[in-house]
Design goal:
By secondary structure, this protein is an all-beta fold. It has one domain: Immunoglobulin-like. It has no helices and 8 strands. The chain has strands at residues 19-27, 30-31, 36-40, 46-51, 57-62, 65-73, 76-84, 87-94. The strands form 2 sheets. Strands 1, 2, 5 and 8 form a 4-stranded mixed sheet that branches. A hairpin with a 2-residue loop joins strand 6 and strand 7 (76-84). The chain starts with 18 loop residues before the first strand and ends with a strand. It holds the Pfam family DUF1416. InterPro entries: DUF1416, Ig-like_fold.
């Protein structure tokens, strides 16, 4: 048995009342798999980390509010503020 984040390629489904932040990581229009995607709260505190799937997808279950999503990859880094609401909030991070 292993302990790991859920498969990031599966379709997103938020349970009633749940908040889900999902998105993709890309560079020059191509997905970036294997990037480390981190979730930070409104104060900048690290909250969670997942590895983007081979198709560049990621997801976090979070509380409604303001979050910052950060991406770390040998191909570049990115960060984006996200305001998550109940349901699914989608974002795209483009590496620069």
């Amino acid at each position: 048995m292993s302990c790991a984040a859920p498969d990031q390629n599966l379709p997103a489904a938020a349970a009633p009342g749940a908040t889900l932040i999902e998105g993709t990581v890309s560079i020059s229009g191509e997905p970036v798999g294997g990037a480390y995607v981190r979730l930070h709260d409104a104060t900048g505190e690290f909250t969670a980390e997942v590895v983007a799937s081979t198709s560049g997808r990621f997801r976090f279950y979070a509380a409604p509010g303001t979050w910052e999503v950060r991406v770390l990859s040998p191909r570049g880094n990115a960060r984006q503020e996200v305001t998550a609401e109940v349901g699914v909030t989608t974002t795209e991070l483009v590496l620069g």
